[in-house]
Write a structure and sequence with these properties.
377 residues, ten-stranded mixed beta sheet
């Protein structure tokens, strides 16, 4: 279905192409970026973008959602371009424009953020909750075992820079994360038996569970929250040291090292990272009710776009998005992070309730060693 949507939208874009513009090919599998590309084509006459919905074919530019250490193409070095032609001072200062081996291979376009949804009739408006205060609430109906994403997120904010194998093997951080999770579930045992509760209710929507006060909170992405119709559901960021962490995956743009249209590709990046172009696009997209994807499925890397435009078209975000430089991102995630998370951390977190504390690290080492052998043959 996703590919069909991309093909149909691509045909629509092609029908608008002038006779003699320079054609730039963008490879992407992200449906949510296509309206922005369409808007570029409507407002630019000399350059037109054509989409290929694959990373396996040659393209000039690529847009993908993932981590910045593992792009699905060989990127061109943007370092000189970034420091000479991009107004990086307009970005959130701690959203990753990260040098790798003295190069800048990618630039972020947008990012998603997770937090918790809750019942506004049960709690006063909570724009942000400190994660330590959240974990230490005396009574809270919230089960982190419902979401491995929450447990992985908690592990990362305890260790936000993963730049050596020693960090993966940090038993102190792992134990802290797992003990925090186990402690929450023990608190909840006074309210309900988690295993029994999951069997009875977990197939129901989190919004229903919150409305009926069966649970207090549910871990949720802000991009999903803005699609909710229920005005009684609120959203709160979870913070650490007054910082809000983006999800580990972000939407990046980069130029292929094999592109023959480097200058035109740079123009497109500069245009896409222009504050006014983003604001004008959001206004244009707002006339289509179905296009409720924030900016490219998340928040823009430019604070003014989020503070000025998103609040106008998404009333749920008014007074929610902070004006200050409160957003940050996880640094130096390993290029095999997705594999590491799926094959080591998630199985570990699923099994941790069945082991004593002194058994958890040996279990982790077994999982890690198996994963390491598999990926270092």
């Amino acid at each position: 279905m996703k590919k069909i949507i991309i093909i149909l939208l691509t045909l629509s874009i092609l029908s608008c192409v002038d006779k003699n513009p320079k054609i730039i090919i963008i490879g992407t599998d992200l449906v949510e970026v296509i309206p922005y590309i369409d808007y570029f084509n409507k407002t630019n006459q000399n350059i037109k973008i054509v989409i290929k919905n694959t990373f396996s074919e040659a393209a000039d530019l690529y847009i993908y959602n993932g981590i910045n250490t593992n792009p699905p193409f060989t990127p061109y070095d943007l370092k000189s371009f970034v420091y000479n032609e991009i107004n990086i001072n307009s970005f959130y200062t701690d959203i990753v424009i990260e040098e790798q081996n003295n190069t800048i291979p990618l630039l972020p376009l947008s990012f998603n953020v997770s937090g918790v949804i809750y019942n506004k009739n049960q709690f006063s408006n909570l724009n942000s909750i400190d994660i330590d205060q959240f974990l230490n609430q005396n009574s809270m109906k919230f089960s982190p075992s419902w979401s491995n994403n929450f447990i992985s997120w908690l592990f990362l904010i305890n260790r936000p820079i993963l730049n050596s194998n020693a960090n993966y093997l940090d038993s102190e951080i792992l134990l802290k994360t797992m003990n925090d999770i186990i402690a929450i579930n023990k608190k909840n045992e006074t309210e309900w038996d988690i295993t029994d509760f999951n069997k009875k209710y977990l197939y129901l929507s989190p919004v229903y569970l919150i409305e009926k006060k069966l649970i207090d909170y549910y871990f949720y992405q802000i991009s999903d929250y803005i699609k909710l119709k229920d005005k009684n559901i609120g959203f709160s960021f979870l913070t650490k040291n007054n910082l809000i962490y983006s999800n580990e995956k972000m939407t990046y743009i980069g130029i292929s090292n094999d592109s023959k249209r480097i200058d035109e590709s740079k123009y497109i990046i500069k245009w896409m990272l222009n504050r006014q172009n983003q604001i004008d696009f959001l206004k244009d997209a707002s006339i289509i009710p179905e296009m409720n994807n924030l900016f490219l499925g998340g928040l823009s890397v430019i604070p003014e776009v989020n503070n000025i435009a998103l609040g106008e078209y998404y009333p749920q975000l008014v007074n929610l998005i902070p004006n200050s430089n409160s957003f940050t991102s996880f640094k130096k995630l390993p290029n095999l992070w997705e594999s590491l998370k799926k094959e080591v951390y998630e199985p570990l977190f699923k099994q941790m309730y069945n082991y004593n504390q002194d058994q958890l690290i040996p279990l982790y080492l077994d999982l890690y060693n198996d994963w390491y052998k598999k990926n270092n043959k």
